[in-house]
Design brief:
- Strands 1, 2, 3, 4, 5, 6, 7 and 10 form an 8-stranded mixed β-sheet that branches.
- About 45% of the residues lie in helices and about 20% in strands.
- Strand 19 and strand 20 form a beta hairpin.
- The relative contact order is 0.11.
- The protein is built from 36 helices and 27 strands.
- The mean pLDDT is about 95.
- The chain has about 950 residues and is α+β, with helices and mostly antiparallel strands.
Length: about 950
């Protein structure tokens, strides 16, 4: 049936609506898994079991390097070249603790075949093993341009991991794996520990690839509506048959259970000026054994849900109410051979360790003795069932199944067993609800299990500054120990790398990259079915879309009557709404009811620019819910309770929730500084961004920090203002009811929700225009991060320029050429981007960047680059092809409904999108180059914000008017 392959298993699995086939390549032993179905978003993936022996990040660096040129595809970065010209819906590579995977997906058949070949050639025949400069750029290298300069270390992965380890949770997760499984591969960090990455030699790097990147160690996956026989024949003929079977020592190790629990103490770095009080992390973590079946995964998920994650979870509530921490989160070994359970306390103190242990043990013992409430169990099971059902409609279903099956496949088990959800849930349900299965697991595998650890991760002010200083001193000693010939060699290597980075691939090399033609693709904009109705003050949008039996409803309330001074309190109301008690049920009961009756409720404050007047925007409060049809009335009643009966006077609960929110927002500044910086820069000129700053930006965070520091003094006044906003924010006039489901469900849903909305008053209040005092503050936001996020934003509307479809083409060109080459490849940042939004705003950013000034210089020279742009007609067509998919993006049913809602609110329509697409397709190189003057002019707005390392900001203090020190 499959020539060259041995059939291992074949069956139809209804849970994933796929004909599944498990094969083995006869010659090499390569493992193949096929999921054949009607999804036109075809997915290919290849993975390898990769087992690092140290913390040098060898797996991670290889993952970056294999995509930098291969036998067939000879440009410097085929990955980026395909990103420039492909219709790919997913294009990435991922490093896990014991595997490295390379998944791609596309809805275009020819594009899919191209991507598959580029990836296969990359992993089996990479140029990196003959060109050391690729290793130097992506991994690490000594940098020395002149013999009198300081010797430095640079590299993309090196800086990426410095950014990752700026988040203390990264250190905690690494420690968790290391402590629980010291006898296995999980004791080392596959991504790399920053200060150990420079210990990796090029020779070991090449040898590791030769050992593990072989068909005999591969896991190959195909998903969707492609011709499986044709793809298998191609795989065998072009790649697999070229290799001989090879025995590979790829055993990840077995962990011997502990006889006694372990106490582990470690440190993480904060800025040297920060206070260390209440910044310790305390973790309780247990190894439950090998992850044998899907049942183990579901049990583990339920344990974390009921004990840690959900509102009123047993351990979360006990720890937060004890006052020993600000927040609680789950911790576990993700995507590994072992199943673990864990919880950690955020912003605590080392002295609380004994109390932390006592609270956990006492709480778990009580849970076992009293039993878990049946409603909580049902809510947890219902949440899992909803997620399984929604996965069928996911835009990345093929990718998610690929990664999920490794939980069994990598360890010699049948991957099909990871996909049989319904049967597994059915088998578990009775044991969980009636036979105390979870309580037994808590007793036997957590409380009575000595294979556990208590981890204390304490802050150390200036720790990384000391490490950096030690590294600089070592580099100085090392440089001093070198003779003239050795120093000259490092200078030559530095210049060679820079020359490599500055030199474009030749035309002959570019010709090797497979390209689509405009004639190969569908040139269309997204079309979402939308019927618009009116029912007195209520507008109804109805979207007839297949949703796998799930109904999606959005209630969109107008907020123009909430004044500027009330926005901060509006954000508090939104943040607290689901987490506070109601008139007739407490917050824990409400959380349980939410997942008993629905698949989840979310609320958000959003802003929408008006298409016909881009200077204006409208704020909305959107309540979204998903549910099955038999729960319609229950869902509406639950929303009524949420929106009319929430009580805002429980000071203790308010403090608990807001402390957690503060912690989360502070962490966002460290880990997603580019997003924080861009919005802050936008607020220098944009009223809409100023509004957003009060909803979730730096301004809201500073307000929240001040409130928590002076809680007892200020809370009475805050409660009064929150109650005032809550009681008048929801009015019937101007509300939009957005329904996404099959049309046979429309009438009943519409009737039920209109009845609910009619309970809200009609309020003819003043409508505010939300004009703020905008000022360019030229700020730096100082954090404990080891890296920086340099951002810029500017308003093209100030030049009377309206959005044009060719702007999306310019954004793609600049992001993938100028920004990528100068900021990532040469500068060593993990990423960079350029964009022009539909609001006619220009944004630029760098991500996990070791630099500030040189990145700013790159931004300032973007106009010059565009004016000198040289691009062939063929390359321009390639860029257009890759952008076309943005006009018809892959969306879930829920996303389609929300997209249509957003179009309606803004006053946009599908004709406007078609115009933008026409402008994109007709754009010429000369039109793109003509935008250089516009870019030079908007750069004069000088709206720069830097988020990042406190010492780097001090070194560049003359660049800023103001430095914000975010206390934690």
């Amino acid at each position: 049936m499959f020539k060259g392959y041995k059939l291992i298993d074949k069956k139809y699995i209804k849970d994933v609506n796929s004909d599944c086939t498990l094969l083995e390549h006869e010659k090499t032993g390569a493992r193949i898994f096929l999921m054949e179905n009607e999804d036109d978003n075809k997915t290919f993936g290849i993975g390898f079991k990769t087992l690092p022996k140290d913390n040098t990040g060898i797996c991670h660096i290889i993952e970056h390097c294999v995509l930098s040129g291969s036998r067939k595809y000879k440009t410097k970065e085929p990955f980026m070249d395909m990103y420039k010209v492909s219709m790919a819906t997913f294009l990435n590579a991922l490093t896990f603790p014991d595997k490295t995977v390379y998944p791609v997906s596309s809805r275009n058949e020819k594009d899919f075949e191209n991507l598959m070949d580029v990836y296969l050639d990359a992993v089996f025949y990479p140029v990196m093993k003959t060109d050391r400069r690729i290793f130097m750029q992506e991994g690490w290298h000594y940098e020395l341009e002149n013999e009198n300069d300081e010797l430095n270390i640079k590299g993309v992965v090196y800086n990426e991991m410095k950014g990752a380890y700026s988040n203390p949770e990264t250190s905690l997760y690494y420690r968790n794996n290391q402590v629980l499984c010291p006898d296995t591969v999980y004791a080392v960090e596959s991504g790399g520990v920053p200060y150990e990455i420079p210990n990796l030699s090029y020779e070991n790097f090449c040898e590791f690839h030769s050992t593990y990147y072989h068909p005999s160690n591969s896991y190959i996956y195909l998903y969707g509506d492609c011709d499986m026989n044709e793809r298998l024949e191609y795989l065998d003929k072009e790649y697999l048959s070229k290799f001989e079977r090879k025995e590979i020592d790829n055993f990840e190790g077995n962990q011997i259970p502990f006889k006694t629990p372990k106490n582990v103490f470690d440190e993480y770095s904060i800025s040297k000026d920060e206070d260390t009080k209440n910044k310790t992390f305390l973790a309780y973590t247990v190894c439950l054994g090998e992850n044998e079946t899907l049942k183990d995964g579901i049990i583990n998920r339920l344990l974390h849900e009921i004990l840690v994650d959900m509102q009123g979870a047993y351990l979360e509530e006990a720890l937060v109410k004890s006052g020993i921490c600000e927040d609680v989160a789950p911790i576990y070994m993700e995507s590994t051979k072992y199943s673990t359970f864990g919880v950690y306390a955020i912003n605590s103190q080392r002295d609380n360790l004994d109390k932390f242990k006592e609270i956990i043990n006492t709480t778990l013992e009580k849970v076992v003795k009293d039993g878990i409430e049946k409603e909580k169990l049902l809510a947890g099971l219902n949440r899992i069932e909803f997620s399984v059902r929604e996965l069928l409609n996911s835009t990345t279903a093929g990718i998610e199944y690929f990664i999920g099956i490794f939980d069994s496949w990598l360890y010699g088990k049948n991957p099909m067993n990871s996909l049989i959800f319904d049967e597994t849930l059915f088998e578990l349900r009775d044991d969980i609800l009636n036979n105390r299965l979870l309580e037994k697991v808590i007793q036997e595998k957590i409380l009575e299990n000595n294979h556990k650890a208590f981890i204390v991760l304490s802050p150390s002010a200036g720790l990384n500054d000391k490490k950096d200083m030690a590294q600089r001193e070592w580099l100085k000693r090392y440089k001093d120990s070198l003779n003239d010939i050795q120093i000259k060699k490092i200078i030559e290597n530095t210049k060679s790398l820079l020359e490599y980075q500055m030199t474009e691939s030749t035309d002959e090399e570019k010709e090797t990259i497979p390209k689509l033609k405009i004639s190969d693709i569908d040139k269309k904009t997204i079309k979402v079915p939308c019927e618009i109705k009116k029912s007195e003050e209520i507008t109804i949008l109805r979207h007839d879309i297949f949703t796998s039996g799930i109904n999606y409803v959005d209630l969109c309330f107008d907020l123009k009557h909430i004044s500027k001074d009330e926005i901060l309190y509006l954000s508090l109301v939104d943040s607290l709404m689901k987490s506070l008690s109601k008139k007739d049920m407490n917050y824990k009961e409400f959380a349980v009811e939410t997942f008993l009756k629905t698949g989840g409720i979310s609320t958000t404050v959003s802003t929408h620019t008006l298409s016909k007047n881009e200077e204006k925007f409208v704020p909305k409060f959107v309540v979204s819910v998903k549910f099955l049809s038999d729960k319609l009335k229950d869902t509406a009643n639950l929303l009524k309770v949420l929106l009319k009966d929430t009580i805002y006077n429980d000071k203790e609960r308010i403090k608990e929730v807001l402390l957690s929110l503060k912690t989360s927002l502070e962490q966002d500044v460290v880990t997603a500084g580019h997003a924080v910086g861009i919005n802050r820069a936008r607020s220098y000129y944009s009223n809409k961004a100023s509004y957003e700053e009060k909803v979730r930006g730096i301004e809201f965070l500073k307000f929240l920090q001040d409130l928590m520091e002076n809680f007892d003094e200020k809370i009475e006044n805050v409660i009064e203002k929150m109650e005032f906003v809550y009681n008048r924010m929801l009015k019937r006039n101007g509300v939009i009811l957005n329904i996404t489901t099959l049309k046979e469900n429309f009438e009943q849903i519409e009737e039920t929700f209109i009845s609910l909305l009619n309970e809200f008053p009609v309020i003819e209040d003043e409508s505010y225009n939300f004009t703020f005092e905008n000022e360019n503050l030229k700020e730096a936001i100082s954090t404990s991060s080891d890296v920086n996020y340099v951002t810029f934003a500017a308003d093209m509307k100030a030049l009377k320029i309206k959005y044009d479809g060719k702007f999306s083409l310019l954004s793609k060109i600049l992001s993938t050429t100028y920004m990528h080459n100068n900021i990532r490849a040469i500068g060593g940042a993990y990423g960079a981007g350029f964009g022009i939004t539909r609001d006619s705003e220009v944004t630029m950013f760098s991500y996990r960047d070791p630099n500030i000034k040189s990145t700013k210089e790159t931004f300032l020279n973007v106009g010059k680059y565009v004016s000198e742009l040289e691009i062939s007609d063929e390359d321009l067509e390639g860029f257009k092809i890759s952008v076309v998919k943005e006009f018809d993006p892959l969306m879930t049913p829920k996303q389609k409904g929300k997209f249509s809602l957003s179009l309606y609110i803004s006053g946009s329509d599908e004709e406007e999108l078609e115009l933008y697409l026409e402008q994109l397709l007709s754009a010429t190189t000369e039109e793109i180059k003509s935008l250089a003057g516009v870019l030079n002019e908007i750069l004069l707005q000088d709206n720069f914000v830097v988020v990042g390392n406190s010492e780097k900001i001090k070194e560049n203090k003359d660049e800023f008017k103001k430095v914000i020190n975010l206390k934690k």
